[in-house]
């Protein structure tokens, strides 16, 4: 593999993937409309002759000249706050955007990797969730635009695999955290860190007994890289099976940040999953992968990045983000899911 496209490459996960594949010697083309991502995340890559950035809405049109060996489709709003604000966009990029990316992969004879999600399991009746669990999703609830778009995206991928023999991979990513998360994207880790560091109350939804399983970004990138270079075309869960309650997470972040913020309870958002934990037996067996970085270590690294201010560089001529507030330090309470 020599030249790859990463859609959503200026986002949290996509930018770390750009870093990794450049480190491996590949040429990386990042296509992103900077809707929820930020130019700050890739500014450090612009001087690399093997990296290029193109401002692109992949739901509308997708073409890149020359040979392409891999397409990694990561473009999509990913936090409940984002997809509540952009429901149609989310549905389009998960369905139409995936279709366009698959069309390009077919035209180029490229391998295709989809960033799918644990949200395909919805509010699960099976725990932990193995890949052969079909899920419990509300198609007409507020999360339906994201969950059902990703389910359709997986179906598109399998259809291209079966009908056209496309070489495909499906990563079902569970909650991931680390540097370059937006401080105000509403996910639990950035919200709690921001609140802990500013001394504001830490806002926990419900009674805080709902569980989450959180994977540090470096571990996820290792898993994605192994999946990309494997020959496994069926979905693979990538996440950290260490499960804790949202209340335990709030207390841990408060302690690691050396904060005395009080913890306050807020009403639980509609369709908030009660439990979330990956069964990673497939990833262990097929990829020889499992997370290595402890939650405490990952959170400490993330808090350090936060306090150091994160990256602030800008791409000349390109607005850092297409949306006001993206990439700023403002904290915003929101749903405490992926
Ligand atoms: P993110 O919002 O940081 O990144 C998404 C990127 O896609 C952004 O840079 C955004 O500008 C871009 N984008 C959105 N719509 C686009 C469009 N139409 N055309 C081009 N670019 C577009 O989110 P993330 O957390 O990095 O998530 C990346 C991918 O991983 C998403 O597909 C998400 O569904 C998936 N995922 C993430 C998690 C997680 O815990 N972060 C968990 C499961 C799945």
Provide a descriptive summary of the structure in words.
This protein has 338 residues and is an alpha/beta fold. The protein has a domain at 3-176 and 216-238: NAD(P)-binding Rossmann-like Domain (Rossmann fold, 3-Layer(aba) Sandwich). Helix content is 34%, strand content 16%. Strands 3-2-1-4-5-6-11 form a 7-stranded parallel sheet, sandwiched between helices. Strands 7-10 form a two-stranded parallel sheet. Strands 8-13 form a two-stranded parallel sheet. Strand 5, helix 4 and strand 6 form a beta-alpha-beta unit. Helix 1 (12-23) packs across helix 6 (217-228), helix 5 crosses helix 7 (246-256) and helix 5 packs across helix 9 (295-308). Mean pLDDT is 91; it is low at 311-318 and 324-335. The structure holds nicotinamide-adenine-dinucleotide. Nicotinamide-adenine-dinucleotide binds at residues 7-8, 10-14, 31-37, 56-59, 74-78, 93, 97, 115, 117, 173, 175-176, 338.
Furnish the topology, listing elements before pairings.
Blueprint: E1 3-7, H1 12-23, E2 27-32, E3 51-55, E4 70-73, H2 80-85, H3 87-108, E5 111-117, H4 144-164, E6 168-173, E7 176-177, H5 188-198, E8 202-205, E9 211-213, E10 215-216, H6 217-228, E11 236-238, E12 243-245, H7 246-256, E13 263-266, H8 281-287, H9 295-308
Parallel strand pairs: 1-2, 1-4, 2-3, 4-5, 5-6, 6-11, 7-10, 8-13
Antiparallel strand pairs: 9-12
The structure holds nicotinamide-adenine-dinucleotide (NAD).
Residues 7-8, 10-14, 31-37, 56-59, 74-78, 93, 97, 115, 117, 173, 175-176, 338 line the site of nicotinamide-adenine-dinucleotide (NAD).
